[in-house]
Amino acid sequence: MANEAVDDMLEFHWIIDMLQTVDVGIVVLDREFKIKMWNGFMESHSGKLPSEVRDKTLFSIFPDIKPDWFAQKAKPVFELKTRAFMLWEQRPYLFKFSNYRPITGSEEFMYQNIILSPLVSATGKVEHISMMIYDMTDIASGKKQLEALQVMQSEALERGAKSRA
């Protein structure tokens, strides 16, 4: 039995290490939107330590996030146990993080996709939700560049058609 407990602790340790080092933001919020978990990605991009944000509301740390809007997004996650999505095409970012590749990147801020997921407790209730933040800046930048090239090509074709007429 003692070996099994040691194995469980070792497994728990590497799971926590993985959550801290994965290149995705992970935040756990309770029903009052107090931050319960803040991983290394969030620490790195926000400049805020987990100890600084723990048990504070998301809105006190990020006043640009509108509480009513966010609560509306989170409500089905808590109540219906379904996921909710925030895509960069609809809203470029939730967290106004600087683009961490300012030399190679042309974007000022990090574009983000966000997934809100229910965390079902042992009682079957959802008292916490997870928020996973994905950096979509490279994809957004590429799409914007492609769209700009398409506009330029279309304008060039129009000018060519007018000059032939």
From TrEMBL:
Chain ranges of the PAS domain: 13-79
InterPro entries reported for this sequence: PAS, PAS-like_dom_sf
Name of the protein in question: PAS domain-containing protein
Lineage: Bacteria, Pseudomonadati, Pseudomonadota, Gammaproteobacteria, Alteromonadales
